[in-house]
Amino acid sequence: MTAILITASPSDPATKFGYLYLRKAADYLSKYGHKIIFLRNATLQNFHDALIEHNPKLVILNGHGGYKSVTGANKEVLLGVISYDPILGKKIIRENPSWMSGRIVFLFTCNTGVELAPRLATETALAVAAFKSDYVFISEDTRFGGREYPFFIAPIQLPLVLAEGGTWGEATQAVRDAFEYYYEKAEAKGDFIQAKYLNYDLANFVVYGNKAVKL
Q: How far is CA 150 from CA 61, 126, 203, in A?
């Protein structure tokens, strides 16, 4: 049984959508026999405890991201490198890239593809995916399943394909294919704003690691 650790703390409208979609994805992932550890209120302590206790092969972090860090509940840094993160306005005095050693990591956040993702890929993780700019999506207030749908279902293809036995290369390509599919669908129906931002997010999706890696 492979363990999958997901952090998703719904502290505002943006992270609420991430939480809702990842919560639904977690139910699907478990159907493939994987052990799912879902931290709704992720802190540095319970994140570390979950890594030690369950040793997950796949770690998905959803929250607010800067160039050098990702936050969880109460804006606490869960994963980061020593420095000042100008995006989040945080001085990081301890770093923990080593916690991702030997793992597949998906940083489903803004900005982490600039520095944190390549740092993890170079030093510790088996494979890493992230976004190198703000992750932009369109929603209709707080209604679930509206115009925000493609912005969340596309990146969630990554853990779904891995859970089904696919390789890292297949999983990351599935993300790209989904973005392109929904981009073309939005253009066809004349929703050019949605199409614009789907293309923007796709352009900022970055991937590191061996394409043959599997769960």
A: 19, 27, 15
- Contact yes or no for 54/37 (Cβ under 8 A): yes
Domain 3-209 class, CATH top level: alpha beta
On whether the pTM is more than 0.85, the answer is yes
In 31-143, alpha helices (H):
44-54, 116-123
Per-residue pLDDT of 66-81, as tens digits, reads 999 999 988 999 999 9
Q: Which of 156, 202, 211 is nearest to 180 (CA)?
A: 202
Question: Cβ contacts of residue 68 below 8 Å, gap of 6+?
Answer: 80, 81, 83, 85, 92, 115, 116
Domain locations in the chain as residue ranges: 3-209
CA distance 161 to 167: 8
